Amino acid sequence: MPRAVACYREFAPCEALRKHVRVFFSFTPPPEKNPRRRPITREVLFGEDDSFCSPLFADGQVSIGFSLGRTCHVDGLWHPNPPGPHGEVIGAMSTVGPAPLGELPEMVGVYFHPAQASPFTHVPACELTDRIVALEDLWGAAGSELPAELSDANTEAARIDRLESALLGRFAEGRGSTVVLDVPGLAVWVLRRRGLLTVECLADAAGVSRQHLTRVFREGVGVTPKLYCRLARFQAGLAYAGCGKNVDWAQAAVEMGYADQSHMIAEFREFSSLTPRTLATQRWFHPFIERARPEPSCAGLSDPQLQARKTYPQRYVCPVQQ
To answer: Residue 275: which of 311, 249, 293 has the closest Cα?
Structure first.
């Protein structure tokens, strides 16, 4: 059996954070055992020849990531990372960012639900759009100390617990929202409809004007509702990743709501730097790709059973249905 060199996992948050946090995540050397006391909702193992690098896809959600002081190189070996542990807040991204050049740091972090990050960052989401901000710039001394504390924790579960505790503390310090409009609910609706909604439809459902919706939505989510719909449609299209050469892209463009195939190609390039065909015919790893395509549940399976569920020769993906 090929040697595993890295592992990506997603973990369910506690009940108190479930409204705001979609998942916690980690990218680490393969753990010796699963932290069973916290549900794992997705797991991906990487072998020595697997690629775990992709561009930073455009995204309408805010996240926080902590680099823990080591980096996995293309040779499958982990090396110290000179900058040391540090934390960053990644705002909503309206366009694709750079690829990580074949290296990825050991990480732990959190993906927020749409329009749910501000109680923890204490700034409107629009102030973070297209920015990666040092956590200490937003959290002060706590943002400086937390990365080292996470790095020093001796287990993956302990790191997630410490991060969760920090988020609960930040939430308790924050002020309640004065926004009456249910922006999180509208954003979830857009995702469920795979972006196939108009701004007029959203404004009518909310009972407000387009201008008011756009202003409040951008403040809460970080991007306008029109761009958010485009991003949701693109991310739904990531389900085609790894499907091979036989995709009928003209039909796919129609099903995804694009005007035509060239319109679809242009948006995929804008949001991922990849064409749909490149995405489908090459092997990529990105959390958004794994999220986009349905997978059977692996809840309750033993480690040998998980090994039998590999989707690639040196990698397995095990999402748990929630």
So the answer is: 249
Let me know: does 271 contact 58? Beta carbons within 8 Å.
yes
Q: Where are the domains of the chain?
A: 4-176+285-307, 183-281
Under DSSP, the state recorded for 61 is: S
Pseudo-torsion of CA 152, 170, 27, 72, nearest 10°? -60
pTM: 0.86
Rounded Cα–Cα distance for residues 282 and 284 (Å): 6
pLDDT for 42-87, tens place per residue? 988 888 776 656 778 999 999 999 999 888 877 778 888 888 899 9
Residues in the chain: 322
Q: Can you tell me the distance from the alpha carbon of 238 to that of 235, in angstroms, rounded to the nearest whole number? A: 5
Does 3.20.20.70 match the CATH number of domain 183-281?
Answer: no
Of 253, 317, 272, 305, nearest to 54 by C-alpha is 272
pLDDT tens-digit series, residues 153-206: 988 999 999 999 999 999 988 666 666 899 999 999 999 999 999 999 999 999
State the sign of the Cα–Cα–Cα–Cα dihedral 258, 260, 263, 267. positive
Tell how strand 104-112 and strand 21-28 pair up.
Answer: antiparallel
| R_g over Cα of the chain | 20
| Cα separation values, 26 from 61, 98, 128, 251, 317, Å | 18, 20, 23, 36, 14
